[in-house]
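Field log, afternoon session.

UNIT: design team B
ACTIVITY: writing a sequence onto a fixed backbone
BACKBONE:
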């Protein structure tokens, strides 16, 4: 996986967003959709809704397994896509962010925690990044 093929990779790993992705690709046709736009428009609303409801745990786990693959990628553009386009979006709602933290793996969580520099840290986080109940 690398940044040049990242749009195709999303559709392979998370086919549940295929319908939305096809609409976006048609809109941009004949040009290729920029990856940050493609991911933002297809995955952000999808994941946000999943985390608001926090009911389809298997699908949420699948998404965060995919996020961890992006976080582990050697291509810095892929890491940036994850952090800036996907993880930053979760900071818009603390309930969603809190639910997301339950599913994040180590590298994804590290990238998410780095965003605390730009956003106010939620009250439910300890200094060490642990949850407060």
């Amino acid at each position: 996986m690398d940044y040049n093929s990242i749009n195709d990779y999303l559709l392979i790993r998370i086919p549940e967003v295929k319908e939305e992705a096809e609409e976006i690709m048609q809109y941009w046709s004949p040009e290729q959709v920029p990856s940050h736009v493609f991911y933002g428009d297809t995955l952000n609303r999808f994941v946000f809704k999943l985390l608001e409801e926090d009911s389809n745990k298997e699908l949420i786990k699948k998404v965060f397994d995919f996020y961890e693959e992006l976080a582990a990628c050697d291509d810095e553009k892929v890491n940036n896509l994850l952090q800036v386009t996907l993880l930053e979006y979760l900071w818009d709602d603390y309930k969603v962010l809190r639910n997301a933290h339950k599913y994040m793996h180590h590298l994804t969580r590290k990238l998410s925690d780095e965003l605390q520099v730009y956003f106010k840290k939620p009250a439910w986080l300890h200094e060490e990044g642990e949850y407060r109940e």
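LOG NOTE: The chain has one domain: 3-117.
NEXT ACTIVITY: expression trials, pending approval
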